Amino acid sequence: MNLLSIVVLALIGEAVWETLKMTWQDGKVSIDRIGALLLGLFLAIGTGMDLLEATGITMKIPFVGTILTGILISRGANFTHDIVATVNNLQSNTKAAKSISSQSSNTAEEKK
């Protein structure tokens, strides 16, 4: 597991926890949030969507990634878009940094 995976898991973990906290508001269950959660889970399970798998993180427990993805989907399009964009930016920045590091290593070896 690399540093990027840890950051992605932390981001998704916080987002899922904040979503689940919304199911209990003002001392009572939020029926709207429960409905959104059920719909998000249905969509993710029905399509086999797994954000963790899409980012290259494999889970040892089947369906955990799909369930977490369903919880994130329940937050709606804007929230999900922001999460996916953040993960994509992290991946792109990591790949760019590796590429620059690799190029500088190759240049140093060529000068020898």
Overview of this protein structure:
By secondary structure, this protein is mainly α. The protein has a domain at 29-90. Helices cover 76% and strands 4% of the residues. It is built from five helices and two strands. It has helices spanning 3-21, 31-47, 51-54, 64-73, 77-111; strands at residues 24-25, 28-29. A two-stranded antiparallel ribbon has the order 1-2. Strand 1 and strand 2 form a beta hairpin.
List keywords for this structure.
112 residues; 76% helix; 4% strand; 5 helices; two-stranded antiparallel ribbon; mainly alpha
Tell me the strand order in the biggest sheet: 1-2
**Rg value:** 18 Å
The averaged pLDDT comes out at 87
Number of strands: 2
Major sheet: size, sense and barrel closure? 2 strands, antiparallel
Order of helices and strands: HEEHHHH
Overall body shape: elongated
| Percentage of β-strand residues | under 5%
Number of helical stretches of at least 4 residues: 5
Distance between the termini: 33 Å
Helix-strand layout with pairing:
Layout: H1 3-21, E1 24-25, E2 28-29, H2 31-47, H3 51-54, H4 64-73, H5 77-111
Antiparallel strand pairs: 1-2
Short note summarizing the structure:
The protein has 112 residues and is mainly alpha-helical.
